[in-house]
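Data card: per-record layout.
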Amino acid sequence: MPRMFLNGTAMSGGADHHLVGDAPLVARTTTAPRYRFHAVGGKYPALEDIGEGGAAVEGEVYELSYEQLREVLLPGEPDGLELGVIELADGSGSLAMVLRREYPRLPELTDISGLASWRTYQEGR
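The structure for this 125-residue chain is written out next.
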């Protein structure tokens, strides 16, 4: 089954965690430190791969079926995100929602890389 890194409202305790259903939690971890982390319009988080010098972003990895990804999780994702493959702290890969390539210069992006956590960003609002 595919592994999916979640770093927003679908994480445990989040408003959209019900979308994960009974999928098993594989790990609480971070990304490799190669991502800029954005709040998009203050509504949802987005990872942007910058190669090096980025943040290690907090999240959770779940094993999800392709059906669950296709029918439940992906249809609810915002237009500013696309499915990609990221690098985790241990060097392994995982599916994740990442910032669409055409979005990096939009004014509604707020760099929250210093927080490296959607929960921390939300708590500070």
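Known properties of this structure: Strands lie at 3-6, 25-30, 35-40, 44-49, 58-63, 81-87, 93-99, 109-111. DSSP finds two helices and eight strands in the chain.

See the next section for split statistics.
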